[in-house]
Amino acid sequence: MLLSIVLSGVAIGCVYALIGIAYNVMFSASRVFSFTAGTLGMAGGILGALFILKLGLPVWAGFLLALAGGAILGVVTEILAVRPVLKSLDQHLYVLSTLALALIVQQFAAIEWGTDAQPFPRLLNIERNSFDQQFWLPMVACAVTIVGLEVLYRRTLLGHAFRAIAEDNYAARALGLPERNLRMASYAIAGVIGALSGFAGGQMLLAFFDNATLLTFYGFVPVALGGMGNNRGAVVAGLVLGLFQQAANFLVGGVFSSVAVFAAFILVLLARPEGLAGVALGRRV
Amino acid sequence: MDMFTSGARPARASFWSSPAITAALPWLVLAAIAVALPLYGSGYWGVIATRACVYWVLVAGLNLLVGFAGQLAIGWVALLTLGAYITAVLSAANVLPEVHPYLALAIAAIAGALFGVIVGLPALRLRTFYFAITTLGFATIVRQIALAWASVTGGGVGVPGPVFPPPFDSQWGFYYLCLGFAAICTWMTVNIANSRFGRALTAIRDAEVAAEASGIAKPRLLILVFLFSGATAAIAGGLFASLQSYITPDAFTTELSVLFFIGVLIGGRGSIIGPLLGTILLTVLPEFAAPLVAWSTFLYAVLLLVIVLVIPGGIAELLDFKNRKPLETHRALVPRPELLKRLLAQDDDPGTLTLEQVELHFGGVRAIDGLDLTILPGQVHGLIGPNGSGKTTTLNVISGYYNPQRGRAVLKDAVLTQLSHHRRAQLRIARTFQTPRIVGEASVIENVMIGGTIDGTGSFFESLFALPRHWQDEKKLHETAMLALSAVGLESLAGVRADRLQHSELRFVEIARALMLRPAFVLLDEPAAGLSVEEIRRLGALVVEMAKNGTGVLLVEHHADLIFDICDHVTVLNLGKKLAAGTPAEIRSHREVVSAYLGG
Amino acid sequence: MPTSAGEPLLRVAGLSSGYGKIGVLRGIDLVVGPNEVVALLGPNGAGKTTLLRAVSGLLPWSGTVQFDGRDLSGAGPREAAKAGLVHVIEGHRIFTQQSVYDNLLLGAYDLPRGERAARVEEALDYFPEIAEKRHERAVALSGGQQQMLAVAQGLVRRPKLLMLDEPSAGLSPVLVDRVFVVVRRLRESGTAVLLVEQLIEKALALANRVYALARGSIVLEANTGEADLPNRLERAYFATARSND
Predict the structure, then answer these.
(1) Nearest residue on chain B to C21, judged by CA atoms?
(2) CB of C54 within 8 Å of any CB in chain A?
(3) Spatial CA neighbour of B237 closest among B264, B263, B260, B268
(4) Domains contained in chain B, CATH given
(5) pLDDT, average across residues B47-54
(6) Which residue of A126, B189, B232, B360 shows the fewest CB atoms closer than 10 Å?
(7) Of A96, A111, A220, which has the smallest distance from its Cβ to B265's Cβ?
(8) Paired strand residues for C17
(9) How many beta-carbon pairs below 8 A join chains A and C?
(10) B142 to chain A: closest CA residue
(11) Which domains does chain A have, with CATH numbers?
């Protein structure tokens, strides 16, 4: 019993962490939190089921197409909902524009795909056991993403450019870095990561339109608690969230676990608005 | 506000184009359509109209929160759910003894008010997006509880909604009940919108630091609005339960919440009629074409995106004919400093404002390093120095945006550095900002009236019901604001939306707003930046006259000519320290100053 | 496009710019010749930084800006930098979390992969002091070294014109001299420099020509050899209402 709580907790925590990382990647490039983060996860699940189950494509093709779909969604987010409102960040219009886009995509999915949760294919043709692929696939996805991002950010010039626009957007522009293209690329990467989370976690979460709302919320918890822009914090907080949720689920049952998670989230945030690992922001005037 | 534009109106304008009538016309038309609906509408339209009324009861309150205060409460459906279940459960008598529906509705309103504060509290501490997410979380949680707590709520099976006693038990009877609630909510929110509280809310939304400097206590005001919005949402919930006649958790979806929220936004921020039309539009839209019903939320979202990107002002902006009239392009600001006497008359000794050994650092950087400063009443004190020498930081210490690590600021017997911003405004310390902090969507005079918020005597409650003290406050604030605008030379633009003004005019709007505090001390942060030579001269005359009337002025400025012209005393800062102090003549010949300030 | 001998490298005419509604600059005319060091002086708030920002495309402007025979209207900082107009912004804003070497590589972002390393070494040659620290994170550098790094970032592109915004701010006199030595070397190697500076005497010693900016307009243009320049500058700064002149 304990084993299954831990396994499912870590697995779902990895999905949350990935969505949290998608939030962070978008935030680093634009100082904007986007409501589309959870939508990306939903898209990964639905596109995977669509390509593999409905259209009968091989798993690898479905996987690549789902990620490509995520990337496109990321770029569309940047063009439609972020770029037009970047000039007036202080008016918080991005909250509205990204919410609108997230709803558009989610509602489109609800209508075209249906409002019932539909099955997601088993990806690997291996026997089911207690440490099943539905648990370890999200873990692998999370590990690969973290290593991949680390390599990108530390070892490549492109990654350095991403870090540069995250640290000082203005100086990066003055230096002649292609800030707009880099921002679009960041959103594409965030799209891939988000879709990957939904795809890898598809067997747990199924192909369900309402995963968008769920993941938008639970994926933000690691960001808020781990400190915005802090991927390591997001992973740790994501795992803690997953384990806490599954344990509460087991101990007190479904609804009250949600209440417990939510109450804990609010209380921690009220005590430390900058997150457990974050730093308070400075000047206003 | 209309009476001020009326002067510009051509004399032969007809009755129908008079501003007061233009403003009232949409309300009259709406009221006529609504009251007469049973005469021509079918029962089917009656249900839709009732639903629109119920939604508006919620949206009216939410509008104060979202449209006025700018708090992006996406999940306000949580309050609707709460109100619906409380009313339904209490009047269904399946758990507790039966409660009369009206009493149940009242209990729901009280619970809604309290829960509104709980849902709203994070807004006082969290960033915008965080708050939006937490309200969404509340909505989900409340719905899940409704589903799980089957012994009370009936779980997925649901509970019957309350039936209101005659004459409100018939379809049209119930419609009139809901219409009545909607009308009362409209009236109350219009009252708030046109009071110092409504203006303070928009100031919190668009110019938070200016709101604080004007003495507006954000937490207190927001809590009042959470109470009100929570109560109206819960009442809407009770009516909603009755309208549905049977409620299950499925009725309270995120989509419904989004509908309310979008209703406010497509209506336009800071407007009442706009969100009202928005709500009606969103309620009616899906009825025109049955196939659209499935796509309704999709369409709302598209509408929201279009509004945000194309017409951020929403429906209200489309209806704002008054502000489409072109302004005169060559309008000169002619301040009338002689009017300051009537605004500033000091009744007692304001004392001196002193900084003692103030030290402030950000991380390792010393922004202010042991600064002593004395500002006397009735004098203009110039503060100059190179970029980053700590001038604005000094103002921010005085007005309370930064707390120094050492030292203190004192005015008379009050240690400023121990007081919150709004207490400093009560001590009559006013200020302006390097970039004007203005509510762009409000009129010029409303912006100025924000400066006098703390002088109101009526409570939020009195304004809600438009009791006598509300009118007294409004009259007095309005008169003082007109006087302040005349003093800075902007009275002809009183009724114009502030974001249509030129930059230099906004600087004078800020000064007028500062004058509303009858300041003992006023802190001016680069008031001449971006002004023409002639405007700077007029600004100088105004500042000198303020000092003559007893106000102590602390003037941060780059324009050396202005500083040397009008200051009684000049302090030069460099790297957070006092480099020199003295009369303008002394400073002008101070070699070190010339080299630090001008380079060389 | 080749420039003929008499033609200026940078020609600014009737330029106005500002921040949103706030107009800062009005009708600026200014030229920088090839191989010329031009100092741009003026009191705080006069609009010097705004002028550099407008020319490099960081701020929108109206008027004419021609560089190396090319019209820069609509060009952003990237296009300007590609054309050889490099702006080193105020306040040595380098990327503190990355190494000195990586900071310079970012300056070489648009260069062909094979050339980057050589260009970075070339820029480091100007500043032996930071060359020693090439693998350290930039946050570990002193303020003066960070300023050198910022200038070096610009040099990686081998600019035709380098615009420096207060390279001496916050530096000790010794370090200031070292930065100015580099500016002199650049001049000798044929790079034009537009220098915004608070240290008037040092700037005048280095520059061929000088412009003074006050209240958003050019109030003085002179060759640095002209007599009585410091006093004329001071008068230009303090001049009350120009309209009375």
Answers:
(1) B503
(2) no
(3) B260
(4) 41-254 (no CATH), 437-518 (3.40.50.300)
(5) 95
(6) A126
(7) A96
(8) C25, C61
(9) 64
(10) A259
(11) 2-121+132-271 (1.10.3470)
In the prediction, which pLDDT does B597 show?
58
Check C43 against B526: CB less than 8 A apart. no
A234-243, B10-19, B171-180: least confidently modelled range: B10-19
Residue type present at position B220: R
Nearest CA distance, A84 vs chain B (angstrom): 7
Range C10-84+159-244 has CATH code 3.40.50.970: no
Q: List chains touching B (3+ CB pairs under 8 A).
A: A, C
Q: Report the pLDDT value the prediction gives residue C242, as an integer from 0 to 100.
A: 38
B386:C198 CB<8 A: yes
How far off is chain A from C109, nearest CA to CA, in Å? 7
CB A191 within 8 A of CB A74: yes
CB contact under 8 A, C201 and B600: yes
Q: Which two tokens stand for residue C214?
A: 């006050």
Write down the residue that tokens 């003037």 correspond to.
B555
Q: How many residues are there in chain C?
A: 245
Query: Across the beta sheet with C161-165, what order do the strands follow?
Result: C85-88, C161-165, C192-196, C37-41, C209-214, C217-223
What are the chain B neighbours of C142 within 8 Å (beta carbons)?
Answer: none
Question: What is the identity of the amino acid at A31?
Answer: R
Q: Which residues of B570-595 are buried (b: 16+ CB within 10 A; e: fewer)?
A: bbbbbbbebbbbeebeebeebeebbe
CB < 8 Å to C80, chain A: 176
Average confidence score pLDDT of chain B = 88
Rounded to a whole number of angstroms, the distance from the CA of C58 to the nearest CA of chain B is 19
Amino acid at A9: G
The alpha-carbon gap from B541 to the nearest alpha carbon of chain C, in Å, equals 15
Whether C240 shows a pLDDT value over 70: the answer reads no
Q: For residue C227, report the phi and psi dihedrals to the nearest 5 degrees.
A: -75, 150
Nearest alpha-carbon partner for B436 in B507, B491, B368? B507
User: Looking at this predicted complex, what is its ipTM?
Assistant: 0.91
Distance, in Å, from the CA atom of C39 to the CA atom of A108, rounded to the nearest integer, reads 60
Lowest mean pLDDT among A17-26, B125-134, B238-247: B125-134
Search chain C and give the residue with CA nearest A158: C109
Give Cα separations from C157 to A52, A180, C57 (angstroms): 49, 20, 17
End-to-end CA distance of chain B: 53
Per CB-CB distance under 8 Å, the chain B contacts of C243 are 533-534
Contacts A217 to B, Cβ<8 Å? 133, 136-137, 140
Contacts of A258 in chain B (CB under 8 A): 140-141, 144
Residue A93: pLDDT band by 50, 70, 90 thresholds?
A: confident
Here the tokens at position C87 are: 């702006």
Considering only the beta carbons, identify the residue of A157, A164, A173 that sits closest to C77.
Answer: A173
A197-246 per-position pLDDT tens digit: 999 999 999 999 999 999 999 999 999 888 888 888 899 999 999 999 88
Question: With pLDDT > 70 as the criterion, what percentage of chain B qualifies?
Answer: 95
Average pLDDT, chain A: 90
The percentage of chain B sitting over the pLDDT mark of 90, rounded to a whole number, equals 52
pLDDT band at C197 (very low <50, low <70, confident <90, very high): confident
Min CA distance, B562 vs chain C (Å)? 8
Say whether pLDDT at B219 is over 50. yes
At A214, list the tokens.
């769920």
Tell the residue number behind the tokens 């504060």, with chain if given. Answer: B117
CA distance B10 to B320: 19
Q: Interhelix angle for A254-271 vs A211-226, to 10°?
A: 40
Domain boundaries, chain C: 10-84+159-244, 91-155
pLDDT digits (tens, 9 = 90+) for B483-531: 999 999 999 999 999 988 988 899 999 999 999 999 999 999 999 988 8
